[in-house]
Design brief:
The protein has 13 helices and four strands. Helix content is 42%, strand content 3%. The strands form two sheets. It has a two-stranded antiparallel sheet. The chain has a two-stranded antiparallel ribbon with strand order 3-4. The protein has helices at residues 11-24, 85-97, 112-122, 143-155, 159-173, 198-209, 211-214, 220-236, 260-276, 279-299, 332-346, 367-377, 384-396; strands spanning 48-51, 62-65, 365-366, 417-418. By secondary structure, it is mainly α. It starts with 10 loop residues before the first helix and ends in a 6-residue tail after the last strand. The protein has a single domain (11-418), classed as Glycosyltransferase. This is Glycoside hydrolase family 15. Residues 394-424 are annotated as: Disordered. One of its GO terms (biological process) is carbohydrate metabolic process.
């Protein structure tokens, strides 16, 4: 159980860890929200999103730019050439100038963090909430995306942006008894996907990780209410054994048994809730987190940390049992060994990682999963070099402004799925 909220990380860890898991990979949760049946369709999206207007309805402020039209985007920016380009460029650069962009880490592309920050900007600035991407299927807000965007903006020094994301999530969630899979920017939900309980954990983790941004602001009351509601409701989603009830997780599949993708975010969230709340709620969250940690180790841990509690292959969720999602977790050495084993199962021939060990053998690596692993590796001295190597891999496999044979562009947390240089 943690006894403090996460403080500032070192600049090196910040680059290779927080920015890897939250900013460099925070260019779309389309990969962190897999919705398997829709991902059977080959990707055919444009290469980037760019701003075209500073005014007007939000749907008209941006454009999805395809490979053949990339010359319309001003190099090194997320701005389309046109009548409003000077105003948009000034806005973009003013925002970048206000950030605490970390120093370059040897072994990674020099522009990696800047480009990730620009993706965050173009998919959040002036919108009701950050979206996963700009094609219609992804022009919505997933709670886990919102959480990661808020944390990324906070760690980059954009306190107002981080607060705005959490306040927007608070307005969508309200007092609802379940967290929806995703929210339409104009209100409601875009389809009938079932609720996903991991969202309560993600909201609590983000609120705890960004507390220095929103405490003392005009939005403090609404975010505090979000924290209390998510904490209280998360407790009701635990069974008599202390484990969460089955729920779809970031794979967005119907689940009849508990997955680590639900248990790990709820555990991290309850740990943060125990530090954000007071009185009896704080005590209940602390006790529930301690019991949940024990039960997760006694079930998932006893079976080698699989994706599902009954056993099988592992997936990305093992990383959420570690920093930067938790602080000083018990039995950390065991968890880090499990992380390395999961990475072995998830490895792809091109050097990246799939969502899980039993993901289809299509040779495709996913940006968010790869970045999440880098983030966890960056928080330990022994694996920080591996984190830098993984960040370098992400940087070398980005779209470079020409038709890709191996990637499609990022929306917001998982941006690009990277095609292999060699098919398996």
């Amino acid at each position: 159980m943690i006894d403090r909220l996460p403080g500032a990380t070192s600049r090196r860890t910040f680059v290779a860890g927080a920015v890897a898991a939250v900013a460099a990979g925070a260019t779309s949760t389309m990969g962190m929200s897999l919705y398997r049946n829709r991902h059977e369709v080959p990707a055919s999206y444009g290469l980037t999103v760019a701003m075209r207007s500073a005014t007007g309805p939000w749907r008209q402020t941006r454009e999805l730019v395809h490979a053949a039209d990339l010359e319309r985007v001003i190099p090194g920016t997320r701005v389309l050439a046109g009548p409003q380009q000077e105003e948009l460029l000034a806005t973009q650069e003013a925002w970048l100038d206000g950030l605490d962009l970390p120093d370059h880490v040897a072994g990674t592309p020099r522009d990696l963090v800047r480009q990730a920050a620009l993706d965050l900007w173009v998919l959040s600035a002036g919108l009701p909430m950050a979206v996963a991407g700009w094609s219609p299927m992804w022009r919505h807000a997933w709670p886990r995306d919102t959480a990661h965007v808020a944390v990324a903006l906070h760690r980059l020094g954009d306190a107002k942006g981080a607060t705005r994301q959490l306040a927007a999530l608070a307005s969508r969630v309200g007092r609802a008894g379940r967290m929806q899979a995703r929210y339409a920017l104009d209100g409601g939900t875009p389809d009938d996907r079932p609720p996903q309980d991991d969202g309560f954990g993600w909201a609590l983790w983000a609120a705890g990780s960004t507390v220095d941004s929103w405490r003392g602001t005009a939005d403090e009351a609404s975010i505090d209410a979000l924290v209390r509601h998510c904490a209280t409701t998360a407790l009701t989603r635990l069974g008599s054994d202390g484990l969460p009830l089955p729920s779809p997780d970031y794979w967005e599949l119907e689940e009849r048994q508990l997955t680590l993708g639900t248990a790990a975010p709820l555990l991290a969230g309850l740990e943060h809730a125990a530090l954000l709340t007071t009185g009896g709620l704080r005590e209940r969250c602390a006790a529930a987190a301690l019991r949940l940690d024990h039960q997760v180790h006694s079930t998932f841990g006893m079976r080698g940390w699989p994706r599902r509690v009954s056993g099988g292959a592992s997936d990305t969720a093992i990383a959420w049992m570690l920093p930067p999602y938790r602080v000083g977790p018990p039995r950390e050495a065991e968890l880090r060994a499990a992380l390395d084993e999961a990475a072995r199962q998830m490895a792809r021939p091109n050097g990246g990682y799939a969502p899980g060990g039993d993901w289809r053998r299509d040779g495709v690596a996913w940006t968010p999963e790869t970045a999440v692993l880098a983030g966890a590796w960056a928080t330990a001295d022994d694996t920080r070099g591996r984190a830098v190597e993984t960040l370098d891999w992400l940087g070398r496999h980005r779209s470079r402004g020409r038709p890709p044979s191996w990637s499609r562009p990022p929306p917001i947390w998982d941006a690009e799925r990277t095609r292999p240089q060699e098919e398996p």
